Task: inverse folding
């Protein structure tokens, strides 16, 4: 994107590979952000929130170290890095934002990072969005980049990158996502929109139900004067890109063999549908059954009964990949063999209809596999 | 126990092995029970609750089929079996209780069960508590039996059995536990005590956080006239046996290599401590780290931060097997090698001290292993 330069290099935070990423904005750029709801928040979130509000010129992201649970020292480390980066780029300290991902409880290697800043600056290019996307990965299996154009008087564009800690622990440590646009959108308007955009994209995915200390979504808008975009169209395009990034993250979920699209419908309230969908999506018994391609609807309805919201089991209908497994709370005859084949796919569709109202909620999750255990039992060691 | 006869036989509900168990009380016997809080309840719970209150003479338990989500038919099936059993034993229909465990959504094979009742009756013996305990197992790896004597004027005794669906899905489908005593205790008093006894025993264990549709705890008291026990002593003995059974269940948790004793202390309220302990105990990231003997305290504090209750991360202390990992929310130096050795045990102790008050809560859970996935991805098939 014109006026937005990216770079991604290796600084030695990780044992090998790219781990330090920079975005440099040639002009002051507005930013709207969402951060984790976890009560334990990473240093970069505490730091960014303390920053004087206003336009920014740079975003520095590191992988390999979450800089979470590092106390005041963790925040001061970022202040020290900001000193170095501002003088390297010739910008002000408070025009810099940070984001981190990786192991919780370890301090950043400040010396290594500061020593790498000149290389990081020299590598800045408008076209370098891919090295940037690669340098924020932990063990994601692919970089996650999306782009869209927004029609308008002159038209604008949006680009986005994300990392899901794919093979590690998405939504936990850490989901990061950055989007960039040159559309002339009002930042206050965008800031107000952010919670709703997040709710309908990143909050619709879950891998292990563990909320990160580092989760961060930022939208940078650099306002190319001539790119005047219709706000409604811009919003729709932005939301779609966020959904695309969220799907890329869940598809790359730790050890996952499939993505499961869970829809709870026929609820009296959306909140009820959401609670049920979330409860089903984190049940290890449901998730292992999906891994085994087992149409074990009993585990699904039992998880629903355990969601802490009232349901009427005798009304529940369960449909897997278009095939009905249960109606009015009891099993209907189905071919186990056929269902096993239907479930042996990269994407599996599950609908739980409560037949009790008109509200619905849907989200995406993964199956629970041997590789999930392998990855997470050996992380750090 | 005198006057209480047990039997356990194979009826063909499961492909092989014991699957049908009977307790016959020579005299009318009082019963106090706890059932699952899952909104979806198995047929035996619906049936038992409809029964006219009063003393009972028999309990029939089957493994291999949960008889849950089977609608009115599932309850009627039990009525039909009660007809057969009452005539076989020469007792009344409403003196019979039922309990089931196994796969959800399938009907009981009523014909097979009724055909097996004569054999079941002929096998009744006071000493047959072990075949009984074996016949209620699904894939538990050992029968779970406990006994205690209660001092008093003449003294009495308590015996208990449980099944945890050890290798399958404890607390889900299904935890069953039955206790028997000849102490002359008032049933109303016992019934009132039951919720508290359950809270401090079976509710202190979790394997996968999934609550069963079938969970059942029953205490039968046959009141030998001369066994007059002190109620306070009786209560303590009973609670200890319930705790023992609960521990036997969690130790046999699906695929588990270790039991983790989680204590959250220094909380302002017990409810806060409980929420944190439960949240930590179901985190797949925490559980896989325990499997890998990884002292990954960052995952523990992140789960705590995500429990939906206020915590002050900057005060949190984390102690594993007596070794401090974190103080005031940040890491303290520790030897990873030493911790790995300390965690490579059958029982591991974790203390999370909030340093924010005086309330505490503790529970037992298991690690999340390859075998857990193997067992649950292939259940039913």
Result:
């Amino acid at each position: 994107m014109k006026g937005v330069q990216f770079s991604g290099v290796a600084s030695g935070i990780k044992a090998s590979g790219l781990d330090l990423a920079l975005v440099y904005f040639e002009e002051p750029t507005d930013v709207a952000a969402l951060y984790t709801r976890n009560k334990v928040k990473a240093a970069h979130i505490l730091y960014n929130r303390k920053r004087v509000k206003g336009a920014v010129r740079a975003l520095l992201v590191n992988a390999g170290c979450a800089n979470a649970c590092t106390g005041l020292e963790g925040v001061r480390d970022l202040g020290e890095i900001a000193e170095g980066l501002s003088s390297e780029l010739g910008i002000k300290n408070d025009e810099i934002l940070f984001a981190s991902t990786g192991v919780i409880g370890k301090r950043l290697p400040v010396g290594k990072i500061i020593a790498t800043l000149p290389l990081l600056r020299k590598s800045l290019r408008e076209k370098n969005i891919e090295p940037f996307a690669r340098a924020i990965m932990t063990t994601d299996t692919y970089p996650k980049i999306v782009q869209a154009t927004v029609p308008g008087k002159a038209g604008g564009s949006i680009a986005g990158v994300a990392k899901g800690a794919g093979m590690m622990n998405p939504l936990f440590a850490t989901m990061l996502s950055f989007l960039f646009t040159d559309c002339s959108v009002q930042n206050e308007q965008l800031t107000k929109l952010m919670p709703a955009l997040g709710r309908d994209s990143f909050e619709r995915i879950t891998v292990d139900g563990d909320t990160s200390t580092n989760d961060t979504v930022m939208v940078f808008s650099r306002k190319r004067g001539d790119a005047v975009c219709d706000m409604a169209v811009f919003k729709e395009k932005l939301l779609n890109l966020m959904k695309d990034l969220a799907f890329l993250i869940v598809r790359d979920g730790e050890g996952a063999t499939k993505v499961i699209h869970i829809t709870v419908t026929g609820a009296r309230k959306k909140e009820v549908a959401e609670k049920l969908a979330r409860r089903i999506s984190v049940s290890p018994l449901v998730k292992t059954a999906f891994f085994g391609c087992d149409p074990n609807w009993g585990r699904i309805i039992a998880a629903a009964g355990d969601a802490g919201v009232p349901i009427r089991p005798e009304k529940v209908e369960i449909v897997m990949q278009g095939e009905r497994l249960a109606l009015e709370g009891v099993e209907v005859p189905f071919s186990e063999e056929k269902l096993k084949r239907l479930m042996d796919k990269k994407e599996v569709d599950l609908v739980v209809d409560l037949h009790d109202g008109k509200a619905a909620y849907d989200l995406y999750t993964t199956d629970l596999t041997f590789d999930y255990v392998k990855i997470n039992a050996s992380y750090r060691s």
Notes: Residues 231-251 of chain A form the longest helix (21 residues). Chain A touches chain B through 66 residues (CB under 8 Å).
